[in-house]
Amino acid sequence: MPQLFSRAADTWFRMILAVLVIGTGVSVGIALAVARSPYLTGQNRVPAQPVPFSHQHHVSDIGIDCRYCHRAVETSASAGLPTTQICMNCHRQVFADSEMLAPVRASYRRRIPIVWNRVHDLPDYVYFNHAIHVHKGIGCYSCHGAVGEMPLIRQDAPLTMKWCLDCHRDPQRHVRPKKFVYSPQPLESLIDTDQTSLTHLRSALVSEYQIQSKVDCYTCHR
């Protein structure tokens, strides 16, 4: 019976098989990299807003507490957005004639809320509760970053499932004394101590606040 394949056929088969395997691995790697890239996660995204509100000015320069505007953060899943009335508490007198604040004055006169564009926009199938996080000593800084340094607010974290799980698996890295929960700075800059003492403090806080490492699906997907 004549030979069906040449002597080189086996070599070609091995080469093609290797290319297919390597190509598949590279394709999967590229797909995962793109899926976790800022292009798709929105990390560092700065959405346009109807009014260019500066957290840097209001938080760092003036020293306004997060809870003055985000009043529901301690009691509900959503932190809440400030009403126009809250804005006008100051801006009846401060920059009262500023052209930049014309939409705020118009909203107040017409009693029509300003429609802000969401910055940290989780998918509908993800459940996140602000209240439980702040009551367990997880600071605003852990998710929102150094907002006091942001002239325009941006999405500081990738908000991927992996990013959430990294914190849930090791909450000690993010817990802080409750008096510092609303401080827009890393804990290291708020407490003058060495890293070892800081680690011991965080470990003690995890125990004191009864923080559990919740990683079951139901925690976030209800």
Automatic annotation (TrEMBL):
Pfam families: Cytochrome_C7 (PF14522). The keyword Transmembrane helix applies. It comes from the Bacteria. CDD domains: Cytochrom_C3. Residues 52-97, 126-222 form the Cytochrome c7-like domain. The keyword Membrane applies. InterPro entries: Cyt_c7-like, Multihaem_cyt_sf. SUPFAM superfamilies: Multiheme cytochromes. The chain crosses the membrane at residues 12-35. Keywords: Membrane, Transmembrane, Transmembrane helix. This is Cytochrome c3 family protein. It comes from Roseiconus nitratireducens.
